Amino acid sequence: MPAHPAGPRHAEVLHEAGAPPVPSDLAALAPGVWSAGLSRDADGSLALRGTPLAALGRAYGTPALLLDEADVRARMSAWREAFAGADVYYAGKAFLCLAMARWVAEEGLGLDVCTGGELELAVRAGFDPARITMHGNNKSDAELARALELEVGRIVVDSSDEIERLAMLTAGSGRRQRVLVRATVGVEAHTHEFVATAHEDQKFGFSVSSGSAEQAVAAVLAVPGLELVGIHSHIGSQIFDTSAFEVSAHRVLDLLARIRDVHGLALPEVDLGGGLGIAYVAGDDPMTPAQIATRLRSIVEREAAGHSLPLPRLTVEPGRAVIGPAVLTLYEVGTVKPLDLDGGLRRTYVSVDGGMSDNVRTALYDADYTCTLANRASDAAPTLTRVVGKHCESGDIVVRDAWLPADVRPGDLLAVAATGAYCRSMASNYNFLPRPPVVSVAADGSHRLLVRRETTDDLLATDLG
C-alpha cells in the first residue's frame, strides 16, 4: 500500500490529534478483531464463510448485523471446555434472541438474564429455567414472582428492598429459592467509568467495606424461603487482565470466611461475573478462555486455602467475549465529505445508512472500532476518515478515526468489526429509523434471518394517534 502523500508535518498533526497510525496494508484483516469466518475474495471483496458480503447486503439490505454462527459456537465451546468443573453462564444482555438462547443451551452453557423480557425470551426458546440466573438492581415484584414461578436456578439479590420482597413472595410457598448476594468489592477495574461496576459509588450490590454485604447475608439467612448459596461479584467490562479479579476474589473469599465464622456456614459458590475484553482494534490483546480459566482457578484456590475454606464452585459470565467478535455490521455509504481542518489536517467524513441507532457505544463510551471497505479492492492512498451516521447529532459517530481508501464513494459497502455485543441490544429508533436485522451465516455459507428488520408499520404500531 502506498504511503500517505502528505509530508512529515501531516504525520505530526495526526499524532497530536490522536489518530491511529497509517496501516501498512489496508487489505489485511487485523487478527483477532474480525470473526474467524471472514476472508477476502480474489477481487478484494469481503466474504463471510464464503458468502460475499455484497450478496448479503443485496439479500437483506443495510445496515445489517452479520453473525458467524460457527464462530459463536466455537467461542461457547472454548469457554465451556476451559471452565470444565465450573459453570459458564452467557450474559444475555450482550445480545439475545431465540436462536442465540437455543445455541447457548445446545453448547452446554447457562444463561443470565436481567429483566422479565429477557427471562420470557429464554422461556420461549425452551431454555431450562434451572440453568438461568436472574440479575438486576431493580427487579419488580412481577419479575421476581415470575422467576419464582419458573423456579430459576439462581436470583442475585441486589438490595435490601429486594430481600424483603422475596421474603413476602416466598412466604408459605413450601420451597426455597437459591440466591446469591451481589457484593461490591471496591475494585477499580481499568475500564470506562460507565462500565465499571465494583467501585463504591454506584447502583449495584452491597458494599463489602461498609459492612452492608454482611448485613445482607444475615437478612437472607433469616428468610425461610431463601437458600443462600454464594456471593456474586462483577467488577466491570472490557477488562484485559485478571489483576482486578485477584483483588475481587481476595475480598469475596475473605467475606466467605467471615460468613463461616459468624454463621457457621461455608457457602459453596463464588460467581466472579464477566467483563473480559475483546479486540476492537489492532493492538488490543485479550486473553483466551483457557488463560482466563487458569488464572481465575488459581486465584480462587489460593484464597480458599488461605482462609481454610472448602473450594467453592466457580461461575463466570462471559457475554461480550462470546458474541462480540463473531458479528460485523454492514453499512452502505451515502455521502462523502472531505474537510480541510486547522493545522493542515485533512479528514473525510463518510456517512453511512445507520449510526447511533444501531451502535451507540461510540457516543456513549467513546468506543473504538475497526472498519474496512467491503465490496471491492482499492489501490487508492489511505485517507483519515470519520465514519458517521445519518442522525441529527454531531456525536453520531460510528468509527472516530479510520484509514479508508481515498476513493470511497456513495454506494460502497463498509464493514465494521466486533459489533456483536451491545449494539443490537442497545439499538433504538432515534429519528424513526427501524432497527437492523440480524443475519446468521452458517459454516457452509448458508444464511438466514434471526431477527428481521423493523418496518415503518412496526414503528407506528404502538402510536394510538
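the 2nd protein, sequnce then structure:
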Amino acid sequence: MAVWESWLKRARRFTEYAEADLKNGRYDSCAFFAQQAVEMLLRGVLLKRTGARPYTHSLSEMVNIISQALQRETPIQVIRCAVRLEKHYLASRYPDAAVSEYSKWDAEEAVECMREVFKYVRELGEDL
C-alpha cells in the first residue's frame, strides 16, 4: 500500500468516528475527527498528486495547493468549509482553547463541512 493510500484509509475511518460521535452527542470529538479526516484526506491527495506533503495543518492552505497543482478553481464553499474546520484543530483538543463548550450545532457544521470537502475531492476524480 502506497503512503498516500494509508492517509486516505485513515481519513475514511475518521469520517466514521466523526459521524458516530455526532450521533452519540460527543460534540468536541466529533469536530476533532471531522477536522482530522479532512486534513488526512488532503494530505493523501497531495501526496498522490504531487508527491509532496506540506508541513502545515491549515486546511485552506492545502486546498489552495491542490487547486494550484491541478490548475483548477476551488469552489468557494469548499474554501469556507476548510476555514471553518481549521478552528477545530486546537479548540476541540484543548478545553481552554475554546470560547465555549461544543454544541450540537458546532458538530453538525463540522460534519457538513467534512462531507463537502470529501465530495469535492471525489469530483476531482479521487476514488474514496
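The two ends are 15 Å apart (CA to CA). The longest helix spans residues 27-50.
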